[in-house]
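Most newcomers find our protein records easier to grasp once they have seen one. A learned vocabulary of local backbone shapes supplies the integers on the structure line. An example says more than a description, so a record of this kind follows:
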Amino acid sequence: MIEFIQSILELLSPELIIRRGGLILLLAVIFTENGVFFGFFLPGDSLLFLAGMLCGLPILDVSIHLLVLALAIAAFVGYAVSYYVGFKLGKWLLSRQDSFFFKASYLNMASSYFEKRQHGAIVIGRFIPVIRTFLPLCLGLIRSDFRVFMVYNFIGALVWTSSLVLAGYFLKIIFPDLIHYLEWIVVSLIVVTSIPLIRQFLKIKRDRVS
């Protein structure tokens, strides 16, 4: 069992995803995390940051402009697909029993996040794991205005991808030796990006108790 878990963690390693699949797999993972509800566990934030650090190297030999544009499109299309799924199948999903791949509590968390921040949540929520995946599904379910959603979807996709990719890209330029500490960087990113999710989860629990 331990070996199985270790193999799964290795498959989800941002560095391994880029090394083995290059740009194509990178785009597929970003699309899946944004567009398919069972992609909530994928390492989107750390993957974007690492892609920026590896951009221009033999492992990811593309220009930074093409990389940011392609990733933003993948995230944008993913959200549009997720909205459509929520619009068409949201009620059916809610009627199903919880499983590892879908929990109604995740959808409720995204709904609560949107209620307090309105359309700004579509941009800010991109930076929070789980909420990032379930938010467009939630908005499709409640029939949120599609045109407004798409505007904020475009802004959110561009801000999320460009900020993380460019942060990794310029950090590599300023501190080139950091490329030798990728594992530590990825672990640190996972910890940092998990903090907003934990805070949101604890806040919802406090609200229910009160």
Summary: The chain has nine helices and no strands.
